[in-house]
Design brief:
2 domains, flat, mainly alpha
C-alpha cells in the first residue's frame, strides 16, 4: 500500500475502497455458505479492531494518551485472565 500511497492520496483511497467493495461483493454472493458467514464475522471483528487502532492513533496525534493506555490495559487483560485459569 505504500507504493499506492506514493501515487497520491486519491489513488490510495480508491484502491482501499475497491478492495473493500470486492470483498463485500464476494461475501454477499456467497452469503448462503456457512464459511462466508463465519468469514464475514471475522472480517468485521478485524475491521472493528482496526478502527479502534485508528481512533487511538488519531487521539495520540492530537495529544491525548488516554486511548493508548486503555488499549494497553485491554491487551494485557487476556494474559491476566489466562493466568487465573492456570
Amino acid at each position: 500500500m505504500a507504493r499506492v500511497l506514493e501515487h497520491g492520496e486519491l489513488t490510495f483511497l480508491g484502491v482501499k475502497v475497491a478492495i473493500g467493495a470486492i470483498a463485500a461483493y464476494i461475501l454477499y454472493r456467497c452469503a448462503h455458505l456457512p464459511l462466508a458467514r463465519h468469514g464475514l464475522t471475522a472480517v468485521l471483528a478485524v475491521y472493528v479492531g482496526l478502527m479502534l487502532v485508528h481512533a487511538a492513533t488519531g487521539c495520540v496525534a492530537l495529544g491525548w494518551q488516554g486511548p493508548v493506555i486503555l488499549l494497553g490495559y485491554l491487551g494485557k487483560l487476556s494474559n491476566a485472565f489466562l493466568s487465573l485459569l492456570i
